[in-house]
Amino acid sequence: MITITLPYSKSISNRLLIMHFLSQSKIALNYLSQSDDTILLQNILQNLSKEETNHFYTHNAGTTTRFLIALLSITKGSWQINADERMNHRPILPLLEALKELGSEIETYCETKIFPLTIKGKDLQGGKTIEILSTQSSQIVSAIAMIAPYCKGGLKIEYPETQTSLSYIDMTLSMMKNYGIDLERKQNIIDIKQGCYKIEEETFEADWSSASFFYALVAISKSHKIFLPQLKENSLQGDKIIKEIFERSFGVTTIFTQEGATIEYNPEIEKQNQQIDFTTCPDLFLPVLIADVCTDSQISYTGLQTLSLKESDRLNSAIKQTEKLNIKATIKEDVLSIDKSQIRHNNLPILIETYQDHRMAMAFYLLAFRYKGIEIENPNCVSKSFPNYWNEIKKIKNNS
Asked: What is the pLDDT of residue 135?
């Protein structure tokens, strides 16, 4: 059995950092993700605490950017945020519109670009219901929810009934409750009371999104037994659904103990051909796709509408790269199907373009466990979420 050390959850870490900053807690945070995005947010908040600068550059870090914009709106001072060009095409405007409705003073300077933008932080007036109209990013709801206790009179947030990635909002609300915030959700309305975070211990878990690549690897190889420490069955993370997906469609089983999870292939499980809806778990699309490409499973895919808004246009990027294996993708009535009947079996080198997207690099490298000649462009982009990915993969390569 091979032990793989997963990173701590980036999603939990980034939310904890915002709540920790607002709480002014003195407790040390020792179990944070070491991803680029979390380190970036941690460094920005440290600079903010020390009042060393009022200019922040957030690169292509969507979570960090959205959470920081909301936080700076209630942090007194004048602030500027700039970001990579890609961030101008990701869901930011609905967050700015919602914050302005609360009285935030946010300015942009170009009709065709969002960044750079300036924020004049101040007390925000709550005591009302704010409606989020966009379904493009659950982080918009989470960003506003986390600052809502610090708005005068609290805040009610109404989000669309068709909201994507709802499990990430669930994570945010669970953590807020754990840290002393009085809130209630009825259907698609969250009622958050004015209050303060009280943090006496930190929340941490291994990252289920990162675990998904090893589920895919086991499905492809059918021979490896992998232990994943600190991967929790009763997790705050919605991406834990990967366990059910891979058991039903690929025959990968999971056994939990207090120490973590053990995953392995079970040939006796009758695999089900199924249509999987990724509306609540878009980050799982790529590892499932690659496992599908490399096995005899038959999957169809729905709920892919937000993939074009990620670090790359993840849906079209994935289709373009799978075409290099002679796989044909068809999208009909928002359902993606792939035809593997003419899949390429020779060993000619295939260069996989990653588009600077960490999940593209991690997922498509798994093709190398089935096909020779797979090369990954810009492999270092994995540092965005899983800096030690290649060392952990090497453990498995060395035991193959």
From this structure: 83
Closest to 380 measured CA to CA, from 350, 397, 398, 356: 356
Distance CA 211, CA 366 (A): 13
Q: How far apart are CA 219 and CA 231, in angstroms?
A: 18
Kindly state the tokens that stand for 301. Answer: 């895919």
319-339, pLDDT tens digit by residue? 999 999 999 999 998 999 999
283 is catalytic: yes
Stretch 166-188: mean pLDDT, rounded? 96
User: Rounded CA gap, 292 and 299, in Å?
Assistant: 7
Catalytic residue among 283, 296, 313, 357: 283
Q: Is the dihedral of CA 271, 272, 273, 276 positive or negative?
A: negative
The structure tokens listed for 313 are: 């246009």
Angle, helices 93-101/138-147, rounded to nearest 10 degrees: 30
Residue 69 Cα distances to 121, 131, 332, angstroms:
10, 18, 37
Residues 180 and 193: their CA atoms lie apart, in Å, by 11
How much is the pLDDT for 148?
Answer: 98
